[in-house]
Amino acid sequence: MVPDRSPPNEATGRGRRRVVLLKSVTAMLASLAGLLLASPVNPPRATGPVTDVEWNALLMRHRDGGVIDLGERSVAFVPQRFQPRAQVTIRGGVFGPIQLDQWRNVVFDGSRFAAPPGTPVSQSLIVANDAQRLVIRNCRFTGYRGEDGTLRIRGPLIRGGQDVTIERSTFEDMLGNLAFIRAHGVRFRDNELRRIREGIQIVGGSDIVIERNRFADYQPAPGDHADAIQLFMNGLKPDEPATQDLTIRDNLFLAGSKTQVIFIGGGKERLGSGLGYARFTIEGNVIVGAVWHGISAPFVSDMTVRGNRLFRVADLDQYDSRIMAGGENVVVQDNEANAFILTDGVSEARNRKVGPSKAAKVDSVIAEWVAKYRPR
User: Fold this and answer.
1) Is 196 part of a structural domain of the chain?
2) Is 356 within a domain?
3) What is the pLDDT of residue 40?
4) Is residue 231 in a domain?
5) Which DSSP helix (H) or strand (E) runs through 20?
6) What pLDDT, on a 0 to 100 scale, did the predictor assign at position 46?
7) CATH number of 124's domain
8) Distance (Å) of CA 159 to CA 120, 164, 202
9) Is 69 within a domain?
10) Which residues have CB under 8 Å from 169's CB, separation 6+?
11) Nearest Cα to Cα of residue 260 among 178, 318, 306, 210
């Protein structure tokens, strides 16, 4: 028999190769599907409380930076020093009172802070000692009322430290709000403060900016002389400077005839020494219904008070809203208030003394502030 020497059927060869390739692809897809089913790409977030052991492990795992995403989990916080080499964001989480000793490079974003039953009446929800590059953003701080109806629990206490920012956060139903003691490089901005008994207290420190915050619905106890922002010198050593380089700008204070607003206490004995209050700017604030002191800063060196609008609502507010200023190299200009008490030597220009204002006018001014600084 003569052997068949005709060329092989190329179409048949291609078909066989196609079948082999199809089987290989099918096998790979089946293997991949099994792998995906066995090990999800996005495993479900852990739920339930964060134990102290887990919390310690999370901090250790993020020494080089990153995000700790807690969701709505409550945290059994263990006081310790945490100083990651790069920024760590702690997102979410529910915390009781916590203490941050020498924390560095940390952002709390969207966390909630509240006091469990049995928390001491005057406990601060955060005590930060010598913190650096600490940011508290989009957080909520909530106190509570005792059986007698009095407000309890305080907001953050920042003692010492450098570069602390608190922004876009809410503080409500609290005995006291915040304290900055010998802190430097503070930014407190775009926050909401409501239903509180006392406001911000500042002792010492420098480079502090308080801006675009809304203070409303103050609820002092009988006999209180509450203040929205108060500076004093209690506890400072004789050679330790008072607060210097302070800006209070573009805030809305709805005092409701219940609280004083900006009160700079003491300072006479230090005026001109280099250790007193110095280099203050108070500008662009809207103050409605202050008790006695709308802006009171009698002993400051190098201060500018300008563009503030202070209102007493007719047939509603009991007291005039006034500006009192004095010291060395003080400028008071372009303000509107019910009264001005200025010491000798103050440079003043274009200030307007006005009587009580109609509610509609004040409402319009408040609406302007809201549209500018709280747009939807």
Assistant:
1) yes
2) yes
3) 37
4) yes
5) helix 10-38
6) 67
7) 2.160.20.10
8) 20, 10, 10
9) no
10) 136, 137, 138, 139, 140, 141, 191, 192
11) 318
- The pLDDT assigned to 7 comes to 45
The bridge status of strand 151-152 relative to strand 144-145 is: antiparallel
- Please count the CA atoms within 13 angstroms of the CA of 294 that sit on its side-chain side: 30
Enter the pTM of the model: 0.86
Residue with tokens 């003080």: 330
pLDDT digits (tens, 9 = 90+) for 306-325: 999 999 999 998 888 999 99
Give the C-alpha separation, 360 to 25, whole Å.
Answer: 75
Cα R_g (the chain), whole angstroms: 30
Residues comprising the chain, all counted: 376
Mention every residue, 6+ apart, whose C-beta is less than 8 A from residue 113.
94, 95, 96, 97, 98, 125, 126, 139, 140, 141, 142
Q: How many domains does the chain have?
A: 1
Determine the Cα–Cα distance for residues 272 and 49; give it in Å rounded to an integer: 55
Q: And the tokens for 152?
A: 């309890």
pLDDT tens digits, one per residue of 7-28: 444 444 444 445 444 455 455 5
Domain assignment of residue 148, given as a range: 89-373
